[in-house]
Amino acid sequence: MDSTEFRKRGMEMVEYICNYLETLGERRVTPSVEPGYLRHLLPTEAPQEPEDWDQIMSDVEDKIMPGVTHWQHPRFHAYFPAGNSFPSILGDMLGDGIGCIGFSWAASPACTELETIVLDWLGKAIGLPDHFLALKEGSTGGGVIQTSASECVLVTMLAARAQALKRLKAQHPFVEEGHLLSKLMAYCSKEAHSCVEKAAMICFVKLRILEPDENASLRGQTVGEAMEEDELQGLVPFFVSTTLGTTGSCAFDNLPEIGNELKKFPCVWLHVDAAYAGNSFICPELKPLLKGIEYADSFNTNPNKWLLTNFDCSTLWVRDRIRLTSALVVDPLYLKHGYSDAAIDYRHWGVPLSRRFRSLKLWFVLRSYGISGLQHYIRHHIKLAKRFEELVLKDKRFEICNQVKLGLVCFRLKGTDKLNEKLLSAINESGKLHMVPASVNERYIIRFCAVAQNATAEDIDYAWDTIVDFANELLEKEQHDEITEIINRKKQDTLAQKRSFFVRMVSDPKIYNPAINKAGTPKLSMELPSPVISRGSAPIIRTQSSVDHNSWISWPLAFLFNSNNEEKGNNCSLRFRHLDTNVRPTSSRRNSGAGSSPSPENETGFVNQPQQQQQMQSPRKSPMVLRKAPSARENHN
Ligand code: PLP
């Protein structure tokens, strides 16, 4: 592709992106594809020869788009927003066009310097203390762009670990570093993002996960007590990761309390992860949420979440850049340059060496919207979340599960977790809305986040109407299922009663009322031996489609008839009072075991079973019956 074609295709691409974003609402918000769907649509090898651009673009629409989850969709309310805006896209495009790799100041001075300036701009707008700003007179701190919040937590933990090990090494010069490492303990709340756990795994340090209060907020006393306890055990607290705006419910750890508690542990690094919420602190009225930041050693927020900036752009500020870089500096000759001491080399501020020109897109965003435009955007999302909260509160079948301070509302149907799981999965499967769950205070909740840049009140109302429709349907079905269950349980109880009656009847013939035997009961001669049936050797009783005559008869008589018929060559069909069916008893040649009372479990060989007979048979299949029912012999022993 030469520049002439790039111009043409570039225009087409802009057109494609605009169309995509403008008509996004017409698509399903989530794809309905199975894992591996794309493998079946694309060749197994890369093409040997160049392909036609139009063909590639047509595959985008036909093969790629069906598998895309549309994070910018007005019906997407999952996770947190994925920052996106035209200025940001263009800024990224320019960065890609320039294509520099700004690992050091010398590798591309503008890349480094713009990052420092833009991070100072944003840091000031957020309200970070001066010691976090690189260009403030006398400051030792500064900001840097990382790929993700996870990386921010990792590098700060690495820095804290290096600092703690250095201190311990100085105190115990002859102790192995591995042993010192095994003493280090980090802390976070149960509500902290899983990236803290991951960072601890990578850093090979212990992590103590602490219980937050009923508002999902980690309290100072909890942290202080845990650290004191651990010190008594010979462990060394070295890092606390707090969260402002937790992933689950956008809860805020009590930073002033924790910071105050950490005064007793001056060597402990205090990190603040405000991946989503931190962006909102550009609004003056939300700055109180940042209270306690003066205690922090580092702070991160993701403009690529809630500041209209495309991924990746996670901003991290540290109070002392030397403490950060001393954990990460490796300085081979080929990377040294004449201004190493005078300029920032961002390669020492993170894991990768190579770095994209990411500050360009943030610079474009900050300039295009201005702080006021970004404040308007944040406030708009909060207003939408409040509207949604009000709708939920009006419906008494639902409850709100978090304090709605920003753009996230956590709610649930009053009822079981299972019920809420069913509701959410039905909604998500429909492709009409997309939300994700979380567990807050051990309860399953549904998260609803205002996400789309230009979301409207109508979008919120649509979302709520959709949720209500699904809830109505689900609750109706649950009610119906409950009634069916009650009926079935009643049926089973009745059957169990009947069964117990059979058993009592056959084991105590006195309860049999001969008056009900309306059939011409065969004469029972006194010489006739009483039937001796063993479990598992009951007479085989077959129903007949055409019955000779109808007779009410009870189980004991059936056995008598059976033996009688055999001897006399009779073959009469009978009607069982309790089974309400016509049967013809035929003899089982196996009726020779030790005597016992027949029970329903003895019934075998029903043909054309009516429903009641089938139900009577089922307990025999039940493992419980098989396990628990004693054998005839055991019954008698
Ligand atoms: N921290 C918090 C509070 C988050 O909410 C998230 C993600 O939502 C993360 C960390 C992880 O973010 P990233 O994907 O940038 O690593």
UniProtKB/TrEMBL annotation:
This is Tyrosine decarboxylase. Belongs to the group II decarboxylase family. The modification N6-(pyridoxal phosphate)lysine is found at K305. Residues 583-608 have a biased composition (Polar residues). One of its GO terms (biological process) is behavioral response to cocaine. CDD domains: DOPA_deC_like. The gene is Dmoj\GI20238. GO terms for cellular component: cytoplasm. Residues 583-637 are annotated as: Disordered. Keywords: Decarboxylase, Lyase, Pyridoxal phosphate. InterPro entries: Aromatic_deC (IPR010977), PyrdxlP-dep_de-COase (IPR002129), PyrdxlP-dep_Trfase (IPR015424), PyrdxlP-dep_Trfase_major (IPR015421), PyrdxlP-dep_Trfase_small (IPR015422), Pyridoxal-P_BS (IPR021115).
